[in-house]
Amino acid sequence: MMPASKDSDNAFGLQGVTRAFGPVRAVDAVSLAFPRGRTSVLIGSSGSGKSTLLRLLIGLEWPDAGQVLCDGTPLQRDEVLAVRRRVGYVIQDGGLFPHLTVAGNLGLLPRHLGWKPARVVERAHELAALAHLHADLLARFPAELSGGQRQRVALMRALMLDPPTLLLDEPLGALDPLVRHGLQEELRDIFARLGKTVIMVTHDLAEAAFFSRRLVLMRRGRVLQDGSLADFRRTPADPFVREFLAAHRNLPDADACAAG
Ligand code: ADP
Ligand code: MG
After folding, report:
1. Which segments within 170-259 are labelled E, that is strand?
2. Which CATH superfamily is domain 7-86+163-256 in?
3. For strand 24-35 and strand 10-21, is the pairing parallel, antiparallel, or unpaired?
4. What is the pLDDT of residues 213-243, one digit of tens each?
5. Closest ligand 1 atom number to CA of residue 221
6. What is the pTM assigned to this prediction?
7. How far is the CA of 81 from the centre of ligand 1 (A)?
8. Integer-rounded Cα radius of gyration of the chain
9. How far is the CA of 26 from the centre of ligand 1 (A)?
10. In the 8-state DSSP scheme, what is residue 91?
11. What residues form DSSP beta bridges with 19?
């Protein structure tokens, strides 16, 4: 059980939010709160509504019913740009502009907001150190980076304005297991050190449990269960929870490996 919290303790909340695309309810009557300074993970199969839920929080989608709360007050259309400046958002493939260098990508929004070039450069170097990205790479184009380096840059770009909140949509989904494992550890460390509110989407249960004790399992736009992995195991709220857990196979013993 989540402890009771006031709306104003939460970076974001949803109250009975529905967002439909034609006959599909991508998000269906969802009520959730995301407490400040904590990491929460949205998990569920592809198509369960995770990305739409994130997009609703920053006004990239708008509810058909219900409301989104931002810092305890209903999100209004004329506040969306201000909200986005307080939220770093990373999409699955990183969403870097291919025609801009790393430095260009990092500086785009700050320059638009009137930062002096020296300040942009200083912040870029600060974040390169934080994300363990060699400063030489700031002059490269995204196509000249490895997948892991691109994801580091996407995260750095989301952190440029030092937003209190990060929304991360499968930020490690495209990486090979070794790179992914290393970045998981670094990211968890960075989130803890910076004290950010983080809402992360993943379809990988082990990754979800690694980042947070608070997992929100979605299916067909609904929240099936909101709790820890231990809660899911001990008291599954729906038969699908057990099915979802069972689908995450552990490595077999050598003896039990598939033959051939
Ligand atoms: P997830 O991120 O969990 O994979 P999504 O939020 O992307 O799920 O999608 C949830 C459902 O909403 C899916 O059935 C998807 O096809 C549908 N959907 C999402 N965005 C759109 C859109 N812009 N137009 C039509 N259908 C959409
Ligand atoms: Mg998605």
Report:
1. 197-202, 215-219, 222-227
2. P-loop containing nucleotide triphosphate hydrolases (3.40.50.300)
3. antiparallel
4. 999 999 999 999 999 999 999 999 999 999 9
5. 10
6. 0.91
7. 23
8. 19
9. 6
10. -
11. 27
